[in-house]
Amino acid sequence: MKSFRADIRVTLKNGVLDPQGKAIEGALGSLGFDGVDQVRQGKTFDVTLNAKDKKAAETALTAMCEKLLANTVIEDYDVTVNQSDK
Amino acid sequence: MIAAITKISGHAPTLAWHTDTALPDSELVIIPGGFSHGDYLRAGAIAARAPVMKAVAQAAENGVRILGVCNGFQTLTESGLLPGALMRNAGLTFVCKEVKLQIANNQNPFTQLYQEGEIIRCPVAHHDGNYFADAKTLERIEGEGQVAFRYAEGSNPNGSLNDIAGIFNARGNVLGMMPHPENLVEPAHSGIDGKRLFQGALDLLEVEPA
Q: The domain spanning residue A52 has which CATH number?
């Protein structure tokens, strides 16, 4: 078994309204950041796990996203796996 | 919820714990509101993966009536027992007030004691009640009569698509709704508009006049 570290990004699907992102966009505007086109709020998860190889780690992490970390009715997810340096 | 059921049915409900793996024999299973598991990750997300939810899914499969109110509705969508999702309120604030609900479909045990199109009072108290489903799903649930309640015109408190406040599953034995009918079941609540939902769900069909 090897140790892996994964970054998981969960974001709202295109077309799903994101009122929190809109509010942040407005606040950035009031701070004078006037070049901001759009802000979408999401979540990131930093997961360390043990797996046989990188592929097995990716398979497990994808299942975690499908089953819990993302609600695929409204969210997309993206998994990046790196060998852990620990 | 426990008090409401006890008063309406004359029987105290049996309680199930989130770690239970089986439910007692029941004609009605209720998942009440209440920010279970702190709403961590997403509202209802952790609750939907609790061991007891396997038993709830099995009960639904067996045709047992299941009612999820507020956080219970979120738990039912998160578990896949109801379509769609409940997102942060469009106005971003927690809403705690009374709304008007329209009965969208009374051809179901839960709503059988209401008139179709009838408008009733009902309290809401939530932060994530903004009902969302993709266009295809929305078209399907609208076409199949799965919308149980809508916020009456001008009273949508959270941005829900099509003013949806409560939906049935395709089979009609699972109902999820954001408003709290259990908080309007006796005169001390200032009204009893919510009472008929429980009487209908329990087939207690002799209703005293409102």
A: 3.30.1280.10
Contact call for B87 and A20, based on CB within 8 A:
no
Q: Based on the structure, what is the number of domains in chain B?
A: 1
- Whole-angstrom distance, CA of residue B141 vs CA of residue B199: 25
Nearest CA in chain A to B137: A73
Confidence band, pLDDT 50/70/90 cuts, at residue A17: confident
How far are the Cα atoms of B35, B102, B143 from residue B154, in angstroms, in the given order? 27, 12, 23
B70 is catalytic: yes
User: What CATH number should be reported for the domain holding residue B63?
Assistant: 3.40.50.880
Q: Tens digits of per-residue pLDDT, B73-122?
A: 999 999 999 999 999 999 999 999 999 999 999 999 999 999 999 999 99
Residues 14-33 of A with CB under 8 A from B: 16-17, 19-20, 23
pTM beyond cutoff 0.90: yes
Any domain includes B210:
no
| Closest residue in chain A to residue B78, using alpha carbons only | A71
Rounded Cα gap, residues B181 and B64, in angstroms: 20
Q: Taking CB atoms and an 8 Å cut-off, how many pairs form between chains A and B?
A: 35
Structure confidence by residue, pLDDT tens digits, B137-151: 999 999 999 999 999
CA dist., res. B90 & res. B72, Å (int) = 20
CA distance B165 to B145: 14
Report residue B60 as tokens. Answer: 């639904």
How confident is the model at residue A85, as a pLDDT?
Answer: 64
From the list A67, A69, A74, the residue facing B87 with the nearest CB is: A74
Q: Is any Cβ of chain B less than 8 angstroms from the Cβ of A70? A: no
Q: Do the domain assignments include residue B80?
A: yes
